[in-house]
C-alpha cells in the first residue's frame, strides 16, 4: 500500500476506493467478523425460547406453542451455517432492549396470527442460561458447562388485535 501512496494520486485514490468497496461489502453481508484476542469471555451461554400463547375465543382454552423460528426448529447444516448466522446477532441486539423485544413480538404476532383455530394472545420470551465453568474447575471436572440449566420468563407481551397499533388505526 505504501507503493500505491507514493504513485500518482489517481492510482492511490482508486485503490482506496476499491479497498473501501471490499470492506463495505464484507460489512453488508456480515463477513467482517472482529476478534478480540485478550477480551473478557462470557460467563454463560444463553438462548431464547420464544413462545406464542393462543386462545380460543369461544371456550377460553389456551395453547402454548414454541414458534417455528430458525434457532428453535430443526435446521440442516447449510441452513445453520449459511442462512441463520445473523439470527444470533439479531437476538443479541434485542437481549437488553425491552422495546425491541416488544416490536419483534408484534411482528411475530402478525406472522403467526393463528394456530389450530385459535388466535394469538401473547408472545413470551424465556431466557435459558447455562453457566460456563471457570478454567481451573473445567479442567478438574472435565466439562465446560454446569449441568444446571436455568429458565426465566423475561418478557410477555399482549399482542391481541385490540392491542395492536395498526388495528386501532384501521378502526378510526
Structure, explained:
This protein is of the alpha+beta class. The protein contains seven helices and five strands. Strands 1, 2, 3, 4 and 5 form a five-stranded antiparallel beta sheet that branches. A hairpin with a 2-residue loop joins strand 3 (114-115) and strand 4. The longest helix has 20 residues, at 9-28. It is flat. It starts with a helix and ends with a helix. Residues 167-172 have low confidence and may be disordered.
Tally of alpha and pi helices? 7
Structural class label: alpha+beta
**Poorly predicted runs:** 167-172
Give a count of the beta strands, DSSP E runs of length 2 or more: 5
Q: How much helical structure, as a percent, in the residues?
A: 40-55%
Radius of gyration: 23 Å
For the biggest sheet, the summary is: 5 strands, antiparallel
N-to-C span = 62 Å
Write down the overall geometry.
flat
- SSE pattern, N- to C-terminal: HHEEHHHEEHEH
Proportion of β residues? Answer: 15-25%
Mean pLDDT: 84
Annotation keywords:
172 residues; alpha+beta; five-stranded antiparallel β-sheet; 7 helices; disordered C terminus
Amino acid at each position: 500500500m505504501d507503493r500505491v501512496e507514493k504513485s500518482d494520486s489517481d492510482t492511490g485514490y482508486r485503490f482506496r476506493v476499491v479497498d473501501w468497496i471490499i470492506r463495505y461489502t464484507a460489512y453488508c453481508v456480515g463477513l467482517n467478523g472482529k476478534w478480540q484476542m485478550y477480551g473478557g469471555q462470557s460467563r454463560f451461554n444463553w438462548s431464547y425460547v420464544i413462545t406464542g400463547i393462543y386462545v380460543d375465543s369461544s371456550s377460553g382454552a389456551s395453547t402454548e406453542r414454541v414458534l417455528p423460528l430458525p434457532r428453535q426448529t430443526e435446521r440442516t447444516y447449510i441452513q445453520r451455517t449459511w442462512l441463520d448466522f445473523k439470527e444470533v446477532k439479531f437476538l443479541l441486539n434485542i437481549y437488553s432492549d425491552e422495546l425491541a423485544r416488544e416490536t419483534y413480538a408484534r411482528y411475530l404476532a402478525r406472522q403467526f396470527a393463528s394456530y389450530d383455530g385459535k388466535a394469538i394472545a401473547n408472545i413470551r420470551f424465556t431466557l435459558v442460561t447455562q453457566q460456563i465453568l471457570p478454567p481451573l474447575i473445567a479442567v478438574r471436572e472435565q466439562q465446560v458447562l454446569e449441568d444446571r440449566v436455568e429458565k426465566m420468563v423475561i418478557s410477555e407481551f399482549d399482542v391481541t388485535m385490540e392491542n395492536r397499533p395498526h388495528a386501532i388505526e384501521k378502526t378510526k
